[in-house]
Inverse folding.
Protein backbone atom coordinates (compact mmCIF):
# COMPACT_ATOMS: atom_id res chain seq x y z
CA UNK A 1 0.00 0.00 0.00
CA UNK A 2 1.29 3.45 -0.88
CA UNK A 3 2.57 5.47 2.07
CA UNK A 4 2.31 8.78 0.24
CA UNK A 5 0.13 10.22 -2.49
CA UNK A 6 1.01 12.82 -5.08
CA UNK A 7 -0.78 15.36 -7.20
CA UNK A 8 0.14 18.26 -9.44
CA UNK A 9 -1.50 21.47 -10.53
CA UNK A 10 0.32 23.41 -13.22
CA UNK A 11 3.95 23.78 -12.16
CA UNK A 12 3.20 22.89 -8.52
CA UNK A 13 3.56 19.34 -7.20
CA UNK A 14 2.28 18.00 -3.89
CA UNK A 15 3.44 15.03 -1.86
CA UNK A 16 1.05 14.00 0.91
CA UNK A 17 2.32 11.77 3.70
CA UNK A 18 -0.35 9.13 3.96
CA UNK A 19 0.46 6.65 6.72
CA UNK A 20 -1.51 8.06 9.65
CA UNK A 21 -1.68 4.60 11.25
CA UNK A 22 2.09 4.79 11.94
CA UNK A 23 1.93 8.57 12.38
CA UNK A 24 3.86 9.06 9.14
CA UNK A 25 7.01 7.67 10.76
CA UNK A 26 9.89 8.03 8.32
CA UNK A 27 10.44 4.41 7.32
CA UNK A 28 12.82 3.58 4.50
CA UNK A 29 9.75 2.60 2.44
CA UNK A 30 8.02 5.96 2.97
CA UNK A 31 11.21 7.89 2.27
CA UNK A 32 11.81 5.80 -0.87
CA UNK A 33 8.36 6.75 -2.19
CA UNK A 34 8.89 10.39 -1.27
CA UNK A 35 12.26 10.56 -3.05
CA UNK A 36 10.79 8.85 -6.13
CA UNK A 37 7.99 11.44 -6.19
CA UNK A 38 10.50 14.29 -5.92
CA UNK A 39 12.54 12.78 -8.76
CA UNK A 40 9.43 12.53 -10.97
CA UNK A 41 8.51 16.16 -10.26
CA UNK A 42 12.04 17.23 -11.12
CA UNK A 43 12.01 15.25 -14.38
CA UNK A 44 8.73 16.97 -15.27
CA UNK A 45 10.27 20.41 -14.64
CA UNK A 46 7.85 21.43 -11.90
CA UNK A 47 8.76 24.68 -10.16
CA UNK A 48 7.56 24.30 -6.57
CA UNK A 49 6.76 21.28 -4.42
CA UNK A 50 4.61 21.12 -1.28
CA UNK A 51 5.14 18.38 1.31
CA UNK A 52 2.16 17.96 3.60
CA UNK A 53 0.16 15.42 5.58
CA UNK A 54 -3.56 14.70 5.38
CA UNK A 55 -5.78 17.56 6.57
CA UNK A 56 -6.54 17.53 10.28
CA UNK A 57 -3.78 15.13 11.40
CA UNK A 58 -2.61 15.40 15.01
CA UNK A 59 0.85 14.14 14.05
CA UNK A 60 2.50 15.48 10.87
CA UNK A 61 5.28 12.91 11.31
CA UNK A 62 6.58 10.96 14.30
CA UNK A 63 10.12 11.13 12.94
CA UNK A 64 12.58 8.36 12.21
CA UNK A 65 11.01 4.91 12.17
CA UNK A 66 12.44 3.74 15.47
CA UNK A 67 11.84 0.09 14.53
CA UNK A 68 14.49 0.50 11.82
CA UNK A 69 17.19 1.93 14.08
CA UNK A 70 20.17 -0.47 14.37
CA UNK A 71 20.47 -2.41 17.63
CA UNK A 72 23.69 -0.76 18.76
CA UNK A 73 27.33 -0.71 17.63
CA UNK A 74 26.45 0.94 14.32
CA UNK A 75 25.98 4.60 13.53
CA UNK A 76 22.18 4.97 13.48
CA UNK A 77 22.39 8.11 11.34
CA UNK A 78 25.22 7.30 8.95
CA UNK A 79 25.59 8.73 5.44
CA UNK A 80 23.32 6.10 3.81
CA UNK A 81 20.55 6.30 6.38
CA UNK A 82 17.22 7.10 4.62
CA UNK A 83 16.52 10.24 6.68
CA UNK A 84 19.97 11.58 5.84
CA UNK A 85 19.28 10.80 2.20
CA UNK A 86 15.93 12.63 2.31
CA UNK A 87 17.39 15.73 3.98
CA UNK A 88 20.14 15.88 1.35
CA UNK A 89 17.59 15.34 -1.41
CA UNK A 90 15.45 18.27 -0.21
CA UNK A 91 18.34 20.63 0.35
CA UNK A 92 20.01 19.84 -3.00
CA UNK A 93 16.74 19.68 -4.89
CA UNK A 94 16.76 22.33 -7.63
CA UNK A 95 13.15 23.26 -6.94
CA UNK A 96 11.90 25.07 -3.79
CA UNK A 97 10.19 22.74 -1.32
CA UNK A 98 7.48 24.11 0.94
CA UNK A 99 6.53 22.24 4.12
CA UNK A 100 2.87 22.72 5.03
CA UNK A 101 2.44 21.57 8.60
CA UNK A 102 -0.40 20.92 10.98
CA UNK A 103 0.15 18.60 13.94
CA UNK A 104 3.27 17.59 15.79
CA UNK A 105 6.65 17.02 14.15
CA UNK A 106 9.19 14.84 15.91
CA UNK A 107 12.94 14.15 15.70
CA UNK A 108 14.14 13.39 12.20
CA UNK A 109 10.90 14.80 10.77
CA UNK A 110 11.64 18.08 12.51
CA UNK A 111 14.92 18.18 10.62
CA UNK A 112 13.15 17.30 7.37
CA UNK A 113 10.71 20.20 7.81
CA UNK A 114 13.47 22.62 8.79
CA UNK A 115 15.46 21.52 5.72
CA UNK A 116 12.60 22.69 3.50
CA UNK A 117 12.92 26.10 1.87
CA UNK A 118 9.70 27.61 3.19
CA UNK A 119 7.55 26.47 6.11
CA UNK A 120 3.89 27.34 6.57
CA UNK A 121 2.19 26.07 9.71
CA UNK A 122 -1.16 25.95 11.44
CA UNK A 123 -1.49 26.76 15.16
CA UNK A 124 -1.70 23.00 15.86
CA UNK A 125 1.88 22.46 14.69
CA UNK A 126 4.69 21.76 17.15
CA UNK A 127 8.32 20.79 16.76
CA UNK A 128 10.52 18.56 18.92
CA UNK A 129 14.20 17.63 18.64
CA UNK A 130 14.16 14.21 20.33
CA UNK A 131 17.56 12.41 20.27
CA UNK A 132 18.05 12.96 24.03
CA UNK A 133 14.78 11.08 24.68
CA UNK A 134 16.13 8.00 22.90
CA UNK A 135 19.87 8.39 23.56
CA UNK A 136 20.58 8.76 19.85
CA UNK A 137 23.75 10.66 18.86
CA UNK A 138 22.38 12.99 16.21
CA UNK A 139 24.67 13.44 13.23
CA UNK A 140 26.77 16.52 12.58
CA UNK A 141 25.12 17.85 9.42
CA UNK A 142 21.75 17.28 11.09
CA UNK A 143 22.78 19.54 13.96
CA UNK A 144 23.73 22.11 11.33
CA UNK A 145 20.22 21.94 9.86
CA UNK A 146 18.84 22.85 13.29
CA UNK A 147 21.45 25.56 13.81
CA UNK A 148 20.64 27.13 10.45
CA UNK A 149 16.93 27.14 11.33
CA UNK A 150 16.83 28.41 14.90
CA UNK A 151 18.91 30.49 17.31
CA UNK A 152 21.67 28.48 18.99
CA UNK A 153 20.13 28.88 22.45
CA UNK A 154 16.82 27.54 21.11
CA UNK A 155 18.54 24.55 19.49
CA UNK A 156 20.25 23.84 22.80
CA UNK A 157 17.01 24.04 24.78
CA UNK A 158 15.11 21.92 22.26
CA UNK A 159 17.89 19.31 21.98
CA UNK A 160 18.60 19.05 25.71
CA UNK A 161 14.97 18.99 26.90
CA UNK A 162 13.45 17.19 23.87
CA UNK A 163 10.26 19.13 24.63
CA UNK A 164 8.05 20.31 21.77
CA UNK A 165 8.06 23.98 20.82
CA UNK A 166 4.61 25.38 20.02
CA UNK A 167 3.63 26.81 16.65
CA UNK A 168 3.45 30.34 18.04
CA UNK A 169 6.91 30.09 19.59
CA UNK A 170 8.40 28.56 16.44
CA UNK A 171 7.03 31.54 14.50
CA UNK A 172 8.28 34.09 17.05
CA UNK A 173 11.74 32.51 16.84
CA UNK A 174 11.79 32.79 13.06
CA UNK A 175 11.91 29.02 12.57
CA UNK A 176 8.95 29.10 10.15
CA UNK A 177 7.73 31.58 7.53
CA UNK A 178 4.02 31.83 8.29
CA UNK A 179 1.54 30.74 10.93
CA UNK A 180 -2.02 30.89 9.68
CA UNK A 181 -5.41 29.58 10.83
CA UNK A 182 -5.86 26.02 9.66
CA UNK A 183 -8.59 26.99 7.22
CA UNK A 184 -6.12 29.34 5.44
CA UNK A 185 -3.24 26.88 5.36
CA UNK A 186 -3.76 25.69 1.80
CA UNK A 187 -4.56 29.15 0.40
CA UNK A 188 -1.39 30.66 1.84
CA UNK A 189 0.84 27.67 1.00
CA UNK A 190 -0.31 27.28 -2.58
CA UNK A 191 -0.29 31.06 -3.07
CA UNK A 192 3.44 31.02 -2.24
CA UNK A 193 3.97 27.98 -4.47
CA UNK A 194 2.27 29.72 -7.40
CA UNK A 195 4.28 32.92 -6.82
CA UNK A 196 7.49 30.86 -7.02
CA UNK A 197 6.26 28.96 -10.07
CA UNK A 198 5.55 32.23 -11.90
CA UNK A 199 9.19 33.29 -11.54
CA UNK A 200 12.30 32.33 -13.50
CA UNK A 201 13.09 28.72 -12.48
CA UNK A 202 16.79 28.85 -13.37
CA UNK A 203 17.34 31.95 -11.22
CA UNK A 204 15.33 30.46 -8.35
CA UNK A 205 17.20 27.18 -8.39
CA UNK A 206 20.63 28.78 -8.51
CA UNK A 207 19.71 31.04 -5.57
CA UNK A 208 18.59 27.98 -3.64
CA UNK A 209 21.93 26.29 -4.33
CA UNK A 210 23.87 29.45 -3.39
CA UNK A 211 22.06 29.60 -0.05
CA UNK A 212 22.73 25.90 0.59
CA UNK A 213 26.45 26.25 -0.08
CA UNK A 214 26.71 29.44 2.00
CA UNK A 215 24.76 27.93 4.92
CA UNK A 216 26.99 24.87 4.87
CA UNK A 217 30.25 26.82 4.75
CA UNK A 218 31.45 25.88 8.22
CA UNK A 219 34.99 24.55 8.18
CA UNK A 220 35.53 21.60 10.52
CA UNK A 221 39.07 20.32 10.95
CA UNK A 222 39.76 16.61 10.34
CA UNK A 223 40.60 16.32 14.04
CA UNK A 224 37.38 18.05 15.06
CA UNK A 225 35.34 15.80 12.78
CA UNK A 226 37.02 12.65 14.09
CA UNK A 227 36.52 13.83 17.66
CA UNK A 228 32.78 14.33 17.09
CA UNK A 229 32.46 10.95 15.36
CA UNK A 230 34.31 9.32 18.27
CA UNK A 231 32.03 11.00 20.81
CA UNK A 232 28.93 9.95 18.85
CA UNK A 233 30.21 6.40 18.80
CA UNK A 234 30.37 6.32 22.59
CA UNK A 235 26.63 7.12 22.56
CA UNK A 236 25.52 4.51 20.03
CA UNK A 237 27.71 1.89 21.72
CA UNK A 238 26.14 2.67 25.10
CA UNK A 239 23.63 0.79 27.25
CA UNK A 240 21.50 3.94 27.23
CA UNK A 241 21.07 3.73 23.45
CA UNK A 242 19.76 0.17 23.77
CA UNK A 243 17.55 1.27 26.67
CA UNK A 244 16.10 4.13 24.57
CA UNK A 245 15.11 1.70 21.81
CA UNK A 246 13.77 -0.91 24.25
CA UNK A 247 11.71 1.62 26.18
CA UNK A 248 10.06 2.93 22.99
CA UNK A 249 9.17 -0.59 21.86
CA UNK A 250 7.86 -1.49 25.32
CA UNK A 251 5.87 1.78 25.45
CA UNK A 252 7.46 2.92 28.74
CA UNK A 253 9.71 5.72 29.95
CA UNK A 254 13.43 4.98 29.54
CA UNK A 255 15.74 4.76 32.56
CA UNK A 256 19.09 6.25 31.54
CA UNK A 257 22.26 5.64 33.57
CA UNK A 258 24.81 7.58 31.55
CA UNK A 259 26.73 4.51 30.44
C1 LIG B 1 8.06 3.83 14.65
C2 LIG B 1 6.12 4.73 15.49
C3 LIG B 1 6.76 5.94 15.70
C4 LIG B 1 8.13 6.04 15.34
N1 LIG B 1 8.72 4.95 14.83
O1 LIG B 1 0.12 7.26 18.60
O2 LIG B 1 15.79 12.59 16.19
S1 LIG B 1 15.99 11.28 16.81
O3 LIG B 1 17.40 11.05 17.11
O4 LIG B 1 15.15 11.17 17.98
C5 LIG B 1 15.53 10.13 15.55
C6 LIG B 1 16.17 8.83 15.62
C7 LIG B 1 14.00 10.09 15.52
O5 LIG B 1 13.44 10.81 14.71
O6 LIG B 1 13.36 9.28 16.37
C8 LIG B 1 11.89 9.36 16.41
C9 LIG B 1 11.49 10.45 17.32
N2 LIG B 1 10.04 10.41 17.50
C10 LIG B 1 9.45 10.42 18.69
O7 LIG B 1 10.08 10.52 19.74
C11 LIG B 1 7.94 10.31 18.68
C12 LIG B 1 7.55 8.86 18.90
N3 LIG B 1 6.09 8.71 18.84
C13 LIG B 1 5.29 9.17 19.82
O8 LIG B 1 5.73 9.70 20.85
C14 LIG B 1 3.81 8.99 19.60
O9 LIG B 1 3.62 8.01 18.60
C15 LIG B 1 3.13 10.28 19.14
C16 LIG B 1 3.11 11.33 20.29
C17 LIG B 1 3.81 10.90 17.92
C18 LIG B 1 1.67 9.98 18.72
O10 LIG B 1 1.02 9.33 19.78
P1 LIG B 1 -0.32 8.51 19.50
O11 LIG B 1 -0.84 8.08 20.83
O12 LIG B 1 -1.19 9.31 18.60
P2 LIG B 1 0.87 5.89 19.06
O13 LIG B 1 2.01 6.19 19.95
O14 LIG B 1 -0.16 4.93 19.54
O15 LIG B 1 1.48 5.41 17.69
C19 LIG B 1 0.70 4.77 16.68
C20 LIG B 1 1.56 3.72 16.04
O16 LIG B 1 2.64 4.36 15.38
C21 LIG B 1 3.88 3.82 15.85
C22 LIG B 1 3.57 3.34 17.27
O17 LIG B 1 4.52 2.38 17.67
C23 LIG B 1 2.19 2.76 17.07
O18 LIG B 1 2.32 1.49 16.46
P3 LIG B 1 1.35 0.29 16.88
O19 LIG B 1 -0.04 0.75 16.52
O20 LIG B 1 1.84 -0.86 16.04
O21 LIG B 1 1.56 0.13 18.36
N4 LIG B 1 4.88 4.87 15.89
C24 LIG B 1 4.74 6.13 16.35
N5 LIG B 1 5.90 6.80 16.24
N6 LIG B 1 8.84 7.17 15.46
N7 LIG B 1 6.78 3.66 14.96
Amino acid sequence: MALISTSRDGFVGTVTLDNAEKRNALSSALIGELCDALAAFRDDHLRAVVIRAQPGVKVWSAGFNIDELPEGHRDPLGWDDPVRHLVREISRYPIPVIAMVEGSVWGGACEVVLACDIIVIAPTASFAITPAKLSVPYNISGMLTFLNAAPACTVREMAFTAKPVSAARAFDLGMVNHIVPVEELETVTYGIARDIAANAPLAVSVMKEQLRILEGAHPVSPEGFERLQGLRRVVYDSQDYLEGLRAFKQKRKPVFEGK
Observations:
- The mean pLDDT is 97.
- The CA atoms of residues 219 and 225 lie 10 Å apart.
